[in-house]
Structure prediction request, 52 residues.
Amino acid sequence: MKTVDPSYSLSQLVTDAVRAHVAHLEQQHHQGHPWPTVAHLDVGRRPLDDDE
Prediction:
């Protein structure tokens, strides 16, 4: 990566890969429409007795 673009980082590679995969999943499972946005994502593990 660094030989082609010294400013390109592993973090950017992962971000680009996740965005590409999300776009693929939107095409495959959501008729090409973006997934709905969420205001807040929970952090950490769910409790074992969580039924959601």
